[in-house]
Fold:
Amino acid sequence: MTQGNEKNAGEVTLDDLAQMVAGGFSEMHEEMHGLEERLDGLGGRMGRLEAKMDQKFSEVDDRLLNLERTTSETKVAVLDMKEDLAATHIANENNSHQLIGHEHRIATLEASVA
Structure:
């Protein structure tokens, strides 16, 4: 080993080592900074995506509530129609028995007059 600032070929001084370590830290700092910027950009994109997803979920919830309301209204309308049809059927049965009775009376009266 030589003394002073002289170097033998292949020897690394403490100053050389310090510069290499400082350069490595500088490179790592730049890479970390670049990574932080990319993560910040990714965070912004994720925030926008989350907002869009929330909006879409709200729209789906609104449509589902509307569909449930419409389905309930339709069920009520169908039940009302069933009741109306049942009442109409009963009324028609009663009227048909009365008509048959009237036809029989009319036929009897016509036979007695003839």
Residues 85 and 91 are 10 Å apart (CA to CA). The first helix runs from residue 14 to 113.
